[in-house]
Write a structure and sequence with these properties.
The structure holds two protein chains of two kinds. Chain A is mainly α. Chain A has a domain of 104 residues: Four Helix Bundle (Hemerythrin (Met), subunit A) (Up-down Bundle), CATH 1.20.120. In chain A, 54% of the residues lie in helices and 4% in strands. The N terminus and C terminus of chain A are likely disordered. The chains are: A mainly alpha, B mainly alpha. Chains A and B meet through α1, α2, α6, α11 and α12 of A and α1, α10 and α16 of B.
Amino acid sequence: MDHRGTKLLTFAALTLAVTAASAAPKENRGLSALAWLEPRGALQALSNEPDRRLHVRSSENPAATDDPGSTKRRWQQISAGEILFHTPILLGGQAAKAGISCASCHVNGRDNAHFQFPGVSHDPGTADVTHSFFSSFRGDDHFNPVSIPDLTRPGKISHENPEELEKFIRGLIVEEFDGQEPGNAALTALAAYVRALRPCDGCSPRPLIMTTHLGRVKQALSAAVQIEASEQRLSHLLIGGARTQLSLIHERYADKKLARERTAITKLSVDLATLQDNIGVRSARYYQLHRKATDQIQALRKLLADSESRSLYNPERLEAYLEKHAIRQRPTH
Amino acid sequence: MRRSLTLLATGAALSLSAIPFAVNAAGGGGGGGGFSGSPSQSAPRYDASAEYQKGRTALQAKDYKKAIKAFKRSLSVASKNANAQYLLGFSYMKLDNHKKAKKPLEKAVKLSPGLIDAHRDLAITYHKLGNTEKANSTLGKLTAKQNACGDSCAEKAQLNAAVAAVQSTMGGNEQASLQLPQSFGLVDGQTSDAVYLSAVSLINEGQYEAALLELDEAGKTFGPHPDVLTYIGFANRKMKRFDIAEEYYQRALTVAPNHLGAIEYYGELKIERGDLAGAQQHLVRLEKLCAFGCYEAEELRRWITEAQSS
């Protein structure tokens, strides 16, 4: 009891951003990633991403690669897996509420030197994924953060063994993070993505720009429409993932004068909610809505590109924003 | 069952003391003691928990007028908060205004019959106002509690001290100085955060009675805070005290009409009571508040889907 008391106290002193997020409507809550980025690394982490390399491995399923249909299916799985990897509602509980996804820790499948979540991390780049903060389930009493591994490198978990990776990921979602049972299709997709990750030595980081996020919206929608009829839960998660990416764009178009942009972004997200409601109805309506959403993305891309320099995708604006909000977002300890 | 524990884990680890709860930034939502589906109504005028905490700080600084102003503001939003009623009465007593102290103290003991300090101060107030009959009957309630408590209950010392204080005042001794009871006075924000968080952990472990005791303590520091109220509702719901649960969800939504957790849990309560249509309304409201989706909406939708298919 006493031990737990002190541990919780550390959370208490530090989790201000999360409190604010849970109490207030999702509008106007600032950049959500600041909840888990160490302040000194925030600018870097919010303006760049490590480049990614994905590969359908032949050694793992030699028979399949000869068959173009099978390779295509594999890429579809990888693509869906990449979206799920960026989707907080896949995880449950506190992580989901804070907007944390797999990619918050493993940026583009790698590590994240700037990840520092109060009570979950010690040094930047570490996390205790057996912590009761995320789970009522696997939480142990020891605060034991370890370095977040780069998933493009060989680690403890075999990627070759047909079942091991899926089992591990399921355990992460359901037990570490208190998420819902993801279902086989989602697990297959996530594992396909993790297996496809390759190191990218010599690649330089890519700037994180509006189309990084909007591109994922599009990717999520195509992935969802490919599997809509057969996998409703996965479909729902993927469109949820698209909406998350829209929220990331929305929070970057924070300037008072960008109200029109924000309205358009919100509108698309609300339309995607309607699309989610129509999953499994098997009506023409679903495909109509889907087509409409795809058109909206096109229009949105143009609208947003015109004012991107005034958004927080512009590193100079981002820096000014971070300076202004640094003290409020994260008290120094 | 496991699911329900999980739901709670989601709200854990939140600090209450460091920031005052932000009363809806956007969209508003109506007060008035009930769940409101209309976002057009205006937000509460004051942050009931922040005002309460201001009042406590003023009390500690012996600025009773300022304390009274803050507690009144808090009560203007959350009139059913026994702690705020009590501390308002206590502040008047410190100003020797027993006439004004009486009403809030009466409300405090009515709202929270377990509030020993409020009984003590109400008995003293009746005595000062010359109402011997009511002073005696209030003292009687305290001695009855004392007898029921026996030798071993947790509140024994507090009860003994309260009875002695009343008897001493009624025996003609002027109370040297009326102290702010320890449970209200000495706890700092951080300690109370720990109490609150341990309450949430207890809920996760299914120890609802113990959790309620700790939430009660946290409430003395934070006053009508929507997170505390929501968890009191949740613990009661898990103990199948649906009416009490509803009452607390409503109180949470009165002080914070857009509180996502309260809207979700209240919706789940409606499902448990068979009111699927009511739950649907909560989902509609969550979807409105979370334009980009949120976990609370996901959870409530799952409850509704499961209820529909069973």
